[in-house]
Amino acid sequence: MMALATMGSAIRTVVVPRAEQVRISRAVFRILRVVFHRGSESTKARFAPTALLVLPLVWSVGVLLGCSATFWALGVEPYREALVLSGSSLTTLGFRTTDDLPTLLLAILEGLVGLGIVALLISFLPTMYTSFSRRETAVAKLHMRSTWFDGNASAASLLVRNQRISGLDQVSEMWAEWEDWFVEVEESHTSFPMLVFFRSPVPDRSWIVGAGIALDAASLYHSTLDLPRAPRAALMIRTGTLALRRIADFFGFDYPEDPQLGDPIAVTRAEYDAVYDRLCDEGLPVRPDRDQAWEDFAGWRVNYDIVLLQLAAFIDAPSAPWVSDRTVP
Description:
This protein is mostly helical. The protein folds into 2 domains: 2-122, no CATH class; 147-314, no CATH class. It contains 12 helices and no strands. Helix 4 packs across helix 5 and helix 7 packs parallel to helix 9 (231-250). The protein is elongated. The two termini are 44 Å apart.
């Protein structure tokens, strides 16, 4: 039973293309997270890759122990000899063998399982890092566009820089790109949830910070800038909200499923007013009714506010305005 449960865990983790709650994988990540969570940024960056490499080892130990118990039940005694035979079969080294047909068949089957685990690892790692690379390409591009001279990345800085360089027409291209990004992230980060914990190559970047900047930029565009409505921006907000919620659902987070206009958000009115004034000073076309603009912004932000902060806190994202610099309400 232990061997079958272990193989089932490996298949559900690597092969099944949907969100699966796998107890062995969750236990490995929870235990290692306790070890790495309170370290430095470089230590935290090693958490997910280490856990990913520990998983095949755990699977192998589970198969080894499960099959050794079966060998022992088939008459291989003492248990030490059954354990050695199981290790010989799993690693396909062949330094122990048997003439008994049921035991021999089990040894052959265990050898195939061992080769299968190696094959899963070989195919699994490239898939993981391909998804990671695609995610980080868009995050890096957004971070470079939205980082101001003080080193902080924010939605307001993204809009200001676009206005200074090429006008706000160019920012509309971002909505479609990030709508696709959210779709890919939702699929990959629920099928392979360990991707959630993979940190960006640059310490002050993060996929969840990038998500927050993109969503806030679209919310500011719709609520605060006196420009024609951009349907793709609204679609991106909805896609991003649903993507973050589905990732949060996998980890069992509790958040308002149907937030209403007027519900509180983590961004304060004073913080919004500072951004409003900055956009005015930079010459961006802002709506004259500041109170209505604030209400509209809060109406967009409330859809993703809680779940965004939950995920940022969960992965201990680097500090960024309006995303990971505050606690969950």
